[in-house]
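Figure-free illustration: sequence to structure, shown twice.
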Amino acid sequence: MDIIRLALRRPIFVTMITVFLIALGVLSLRRLPVDLYPEFSYPVLVVRTSLPGAAPEEVEQLITKRLEDTLSTVAGVKTMRSISREGGANIIMEFDIGDDIRHQEIQVRAKIANARRSLPDDMDEPLVFRQDPDDAPIIELSLTGPRTSSELTRIAEDDVATRLRQIPGVGEVTLEGEREEEIQVELDPLRLEAWRIDARSVVTAIRAFNRNDPAGKLQGEGRVWLLRSLSQAKDVLALGEIVVGKTGDGRPVFLRDVARLSAGFAEVRRVSRAGTAQGSTSAVLINILKQSGENTVAVSSRVQSVLGTLTQSLPAGIQLQTIRDNADLVRTNVDDVKESLIIGGILTVLVVLIFLRSPRSTITTGVALPSSVITTFAIMAVAGFTVNVMTLLALSLAIGLLVDDAIVVRENVFRHMTMRQKDPVAAAYDGTREVILAVLATTFVIVAVFLPVAFMGGVTGQFFKQFALTVVFAVLLSTWDALTMAPMLSAYFANITDPGREWNFLGRFGQRVYRLLSDFEHVFDRIAASYKTHLAWMLPRPWVSALVGLSAVGAAVLGFALVKKSFLPSQLGPVFSVSLSGPLAVPLDPVLQTAAQVEKRLSEIKALNSWTLRAGPGFSGNASINLTVTVAPSPLTLYAPAAMS
């Protein structure tokens, strides 16, 4: 079917198709999720094991080496490293790029299940998780107030975390700095020896009896009752009634007979604090994680709406503050790229107007911009893309390419009307047919450049897939506009051969603008004549051109070698992180002393708003201090990191 003839014979039909596609794009844009970057994942799995009380050497011999021998048989493992520390170990497995990490996770879990019999019985079940960007908290809150740590923990868990977990899109809510209640059992060696009971028997008895187990079911008439044995102790007295052994004459020995029991709190291993320039205080930090695949901005909006009412319902004196919200960074970056996209579109239309000097020709070619860009959002929605920095950057890059085909068509149609004296409809048909191969060639060259980028492997491929395909979608849509809307508008709208007449509707101001555009064209003609002179001088001297070209290539290679390289550009904002790491097996008190020095240095930053601090053993067992610092969004932000050095 001749699409050009269809556009000229059925202009209303083609126009309605274009309007329909734009309407789809507008609806899709309103529903597209907004995020900072496209969704991507690393081919890394972490196996975390825990054996409380075990020394690092025991952990390595009893757990780490056995699991490493088992997990090394998993297909696709690229590298494997482990960190054994007091009470547990971490095994980090990196797989080949392109492997399905979810399938590998299933294999790893199966291997661990097979090796479970060879591991210590009293160790906790190993945990397997992916290093997924979605596993990072999107919102960090601090809960402070004139209460004890246990009271703050209860409020954070019962009043705050419980409500936050009910919000759609929230995957997990974790607490840091909380104090967990526990019953402490201190064995008396003399009593154990007197009753001839060893410590392991006591531990076994507590584990066996301090638990609730299913006990089957009881079936009656029209009803079934599920039975459970309720043996878990609820207080110190109930726990003391557990039988841990027998005397020589068969009398039971209770836990209270061989140990001192008391209600207390779990050992403090990590400390969390929140502070401002006026000072710091103990805090419970609340981290909110989104569900995998959920939109950061949408989840953040729901959370913030709930926090508004939740804060008012807290007890007097309790403050719940938002320390960090990743959605703010997403909104800022996306809005910046949107602004650049709009400015780029306006400048593109102005450049076209300057060179064509015709408002109607500018509209004819400029229609491709909103039509192609907005309709691209509909295809992005079908493809499962998000509005992020990469997709908007792709549209910004494509802005200058979208009008190329329409300009070629419009220029050739105008040439047929002026030089060959054809009527507008015939000129539109013949002019478009004449350049259709050039238009298609230009489009498919761009597609050939960007389409292979979408099939790159690894994390880079995941990152640039949406970027490349967005460019391809937009350019293909611009070809539709060039072969339908451009000839149709040239025939029925931009059918005036004298550009000066088009400015008459603005009166004297319009004629003045047209004279300015004509003066620019005269200047450009002089530049073209100068270029012609220089070209005539260069053609007999090809070595000059070759020397200039080689110099440019050499400068490009040198610049590529000298320029700094990174996967993502560094971002400067009002919220940033500070991390300090120390050696293994450092007691908590020296870490807290260092943390106090850090807090003192922080209080000297003039632009400081607030901070949160976590101090204690880190992921690998090393002493660590992690801070989230918020400063005023001003030029002083540039100097905030320097103040910490």
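We now fold a second protein in the same way, so the two outputs can be compared directly.
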Amino acid sequence: MLDDLDLDSYPDLDFDIEWSEPTILNGKSRHTENLHILPQPTLQEMPNFKVLLEGAWLVRDVKSVDDAIGVAISEAGKRLNNANLEFVEVEAGQTVCPMCGEPLDGAFLIAGTALVGLSFEMKVFDAENENHAARIAKSMIGRAMKSVPLSVIEAEEQP
């Protein structure tokens, strides 16, 4: 039986051949053989991460901060959708007042031109560590957000 099986063609396969005691069948001595395939070592699973990036979006010809935030989120969403990155969440960023600690809108409007802070969040699967996950997220989102400066806020391992 095993003589017909070419075990050399499976170099990554761990196996053990067990020969039984000879048995007599129809006056002939025969050995039976059993092939035991040993379990393969499992690959260590790499963790998943949630990565949060921030970006600065410039919006021209707007009259209010709310309009600027809406335009920035809409334009960023279009770029992400065109790059097949629908799974990236986009939100208006916030900043904290250095004096009182109160949260402020992440948009500054001067002379009809606004600088809007956006946050981009995505899940990165099978990354080696937090830095690897952050580089993957920044690369993927950065390709869609050409000329938008991005920085990593956090990369957190997910269960």
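Summary for the second example: The longest strand covers residues 48-60.
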